[in-house]
Amino acid sequence: MAEPVTSAVMLGLGVAGSAVSAGSTLMGGNAQADALSTQADVLDMTRFNRLLAGKYKAQELNQAADTTLAASQREAMDFSRNKDLLLSKARAAAGSGASDTSVINTMAGIEQQGEFQKAIALFGGLDRSAGLKWEAENALAEAQNNDLATTYQANMMRYNAKLGRRTAAMNAAGTLLSGAGSAFGKYGGEVFGIPKSAVEASEARLKAAQVYGDAAYKELLRRNDQLERWNERPIRWG
Q1: 8-state DSSP, 234
Q2: Using one digit for the tens of pLDDT, what is the confidence trace for 141-171?
Q3: How far is residue 98's CA from residue 149's CA, in Å, rounded to a whole number?
Q4: Residue 158, Cβ neighbours under 10 Å: how many?
Q5: What is the pTM assigned to this prediction?
Q6: Please, which domain of life does this record's source organism belong to (predicted)?
């Protein structure tokens, strides 16, 4: 049997070693959690910038659509004015013979050509404008979808960081309790004069607590995995 003084020293060393190991576990877990939190903050910044860029692009496309439509309307007005000018010249050239069949046919051709050019200009402008409007809506929808996805990713990082801190704390506590319990089981009875049967009972309760803690930790991980799978499910619209 070891001397009480020697046992006390060994008990102190065992507890101190467990404390150092537990501290390292806690620091490592917190460092990983801090890194995840930092990444989440960076994602938030990029998310905001991308959303702004998407809104700005959509605004530019909408403005381009309005400009395109206005330009086509001006072009149609030019065709209409040109048609009216040609008709006026045709009437002046015909003079008193404006009712002649050939003159009427000429004027009808001018009218038809002018209206056709006017319609083509308006249709082309409407078509190009509609395409730009669609691009604007698509750009905005894409920016908003990316914003939602990035927000979810950042939130999951923060959740995992929080979970990591809890896990590190649980592991550190387990390391400390296990090491201290082992040291106490070897040297505590001699230091404090506790009967061996009482020490063995304490060790049994400690092991039971460790088993319960491990089971609780595994259940926590299982629920976290279920939560991640649930959040990754496809979204159905309509």
Answers
A1: P
A2: 888 888 888 888 888 888 877 777 777 666 6
A3: 72
A4: 18
A5: 0.53
A6: Bacteria
Q: Cα-flanking dihedrals φ and ψ of residue 237, to 5°?
A: -100, 145
As a whole number of angstroms, the distance between CA 226 and CA 135 comes to: 38
Positive or negative, the CA dihedral 17, 19, 25, 28 is: negative
Positive or negative, the Cα torsion across 156, 157, 162, 166?
A: positive
Residue 162 φ/ψ region, left for φ over 0, alpha for ψ in the -120 to 50 degree band, beta for the rest: alpha
How many whole angstroms separate alpha carbon 92 and alpha carbon 94? 5
The whole-angstrom separation of Cα 84 and Cα 128 is 27
Q: Is the dihedral of CA 66, 69, 70, 71 positive or negative?
A: positive
In Å, how far are 168, 177, 200, 210, 228 from 197, measured between CA atoms? Answer: 33, 19, 5, 20, 47
Count Cα atoms within 13 angstroms, Cβ side, for 106.
16
Q: Alpha-carbon distance 27 to 41, whole Å?
A: 21
So what's the pLDDT on residue 61? 92
**C-alpha to C-alpha distance for 16 and 12, rounded to whole angstroms:** 6
> Structure tokens of 164?
């990591």
